[in-house]
Amino acid sequence: MCLMARDTEDDWVSRMADQVIAAAERRAPGKPVVVASGLSPSGPIHLGNLREVMTPHLVADEIRRRGIECVHILSWDDYDRFRRVPAGIDPSWSRHIGKPLTSVPAPEGSRYPNWAEHFKAPMIDAAGRLGIEFLGISQTERYTSGAYSAQVLLAMRERARIDAVLDRHRTKARPESDLGERGSRLSEDEAIAARAAAEGSGAATEDDGRTGGEYFPYRPYCTVCESDATTIIRYDDDTTALTYVCECGHRETVELSTHHRGKLVWKVDWPMRWAYEGVIFEPSGVDHQSPGSSFVVGGELVREIFGGEQPIGPMYAFVGISGMAKMSSSKGSVPTPSDALEIMEAAVLRWLYARRKPQQSFTVAFDQEIYRLYDEWDALGRKVAEGTVSPSHAAAFVRAVGTAAGPLPVTPVVLPYRTLASIIDITTGDAAQELRILRDLDPENHHVDRLDEVRPRLDCARAWVMTQMSADQRTFVRAEPDMELLATLSPTERDSLAMLLDRLDEHWSLDGLTTLVYAIPKLQAGLEMDAEPTPELKAAQRQFFALLYTLLVGRDTGPRLPTLLLAIGSARVRSLLGG
Known about the structure:
single chain, 3-stranded parallel beta sheet, Arc Repressor Mutant, subunit A, 3-stranded antiparallel beta sheet, mainly alpha
């Protein structure tokens, strides 16, 4: 299916799909279109890394909707070296620094065989929940099986030419300095996310193989200690005999044509893979596209050494986290796609990535901004149903709720996220009470007979309340009326409570109670319930609301009053308000 916004300028996915299809027809006519992502499972794969996968996924999915075969390769850079021990991991794991990630033991207590598999698993699960189809390729398997043997030998033969290309860029700005220059313009959350994105890729700041003496674009892993703390001291192009020494003291000569325990340095490895896989489209972050960095250098190496073409490769911006302070924002512990999918539906998370062009940064809300996010999402859904939304926004919605393979799970009865969160907060997880309140919310328009009818959104809101709502935001309804306060109420306050209780039962729904609580100060002023509020009336409403909150929950603010009243129940409301 071709989306309605294909020809719309603001629809970045369709425009990129057009470019990719045209490039594929020129480069590899008759073959499946290949788009690619690369992730290093060196630690938790976070929401910034997800953009590396989601951007090509959306383009690939649009190509498939047009009936064109497209393969989305996800290269697991699990043959990368282990660079550092993330926060929260036993510091003794530092003894594994320099080993391939697949040779590092998984964190203590893990059920996975090694470090790479431990951190790949949550991302694979999240991708499945997000509807992302990909062909996973282990670089450990590729290198150790000898799949790249011809390419490695070619790079070694052409090492002088590779060194010359790299040398043209070695004096240019490093990716780290680019982040430093931007740092003063970023918020704290943005700066943390940007640093995490750069650290997550790891290879962006890896050296290019120049260590003094003759240049070699390949680094062997030591057969004794498994580390890459090795130095090549001799190589014979004719026999492929390679001699290296390791910092552990081991010295060895191997035949590179048959010995497959090592890899090309990143700036050579990446363009080699572009040519090997025939990649047409692969985005990358700012850390890979700074002057002199891997994407720029790779464009020259893929043409001059490997006989291929550089992919269409837009730069994508960082992803910020709203409310990161509630989670551990220390290095290596920023939220992951799995964390986000605990508190928001898959379609909403997809929408965040689909609606913004890759070069535009955006924020994933883990704090109360999630209420506003869901309000926007629900409003978009209504506009799409009414046909009153722009084509590009409609296309982003369609891409969020499903893929070329089919729709994603949806919540049958759509209720505001903030309402569900308030109900969960007030009822503290009592399913019977939750169902009672949901039935009373809007019985004429939303018939909720089972909690499953408001899932998975209900479960997302529950997870948000339990994991993200701070203790000072939680709501605790009074167990007994505040008799001392009730005894000191003014005549105007007593009258306002009496008017509310007299009309409570006839307005017992979410909309009815919303109308009622705003109307009481109007009625007291001798006005109709639907009268336009004046500044004086708004002040009176605020005072009335503060009184209700104080009598019901012991503070002058809380969840929306209509939801709170429904949650407490008519009988208990009457008791707490002195009725």
